[in-house]
Amino acid sequence: MPEFAIARPLRTPAPLPDGEAHAQAARIGRLAIRSLYREAALAGKPGLVCPGSQGSHRDMDFATFVRSLQALRPYFPAIAACGQQRPGFAPLQTLGIAAECEMLAATGGVNTHRGAIFNLGLLCAAAGRLVAEGKQPAAQAVCMSVAEHWGEAIRGSQNDVPAAASHGLIVARRYGCGGARQEAAAGFPAAWELGLPAYSEVLAATGDPERAALQALFALIAGLEDSNLLWRGGREGLAYGRRRASEFLEAGGVLSAGWRTHADAIGSAFVARRLSPGGSADLLGVTLFLTGLQGLN
Fold it and tell me: Which of 5, 97, 151, 253 is 20 to 30 Å from 91 by CA-CA measure?
């Protein structure tokens, strides 16, 4: 796994001037939206929505995702600004709940970005907090800040949410898997151990950020207990999805000859089984946000 810089103090922590604080929060928010747009627009994602396909979804298309992202534009700079105040978890949760209402209003009740509201909301808040403390919001430091400052509250919050409110919570309780909350509380280890190494390797080899993103997605599908695969296909569906993704990677992934044909065949197989690796897609959004913090494409 590549080494990434850990944030170091730049100056004695002091409140940022209002103009600078606003500019930093806006920059963090723009990076979050850009990362989510890149994830949504990426072609070749098995079972997932992209500009040319609804994947395994009958209730949404790419236009639905664009409407959702437009609705969420104010949320990410707002939660980054909240992070600058060094809050507890509750104010972040309040902002996230409001953002989810805006998303559902924009999509006609379709859940396009619930995972992103949670994951990238926390990461934006952590980046804002680091900036306010006079530190660089480097990728590893941002992830560790989420775990350090809000990890315990994130774990505890799972018990406060009715299972019916989330497919992820249903499968977490049914199958005993960790789910999105455990991933966030631990500082997003899958992004570090799976997504970022795969992305960095392909970007270095090809200079192509889209191929790098697709490789990262397949690495995440192969390695995660994806809650959406569990929801749609149970243990059998999860095992099938992980096996097909692993086969793609073992064949060389996007660095192999004929990789696009191979990826398209996997996509067709996912659609035939109505499988959608939405948890992996959420963590691809996290991976792309972190690559942006690192200054990668």
Answer: 5
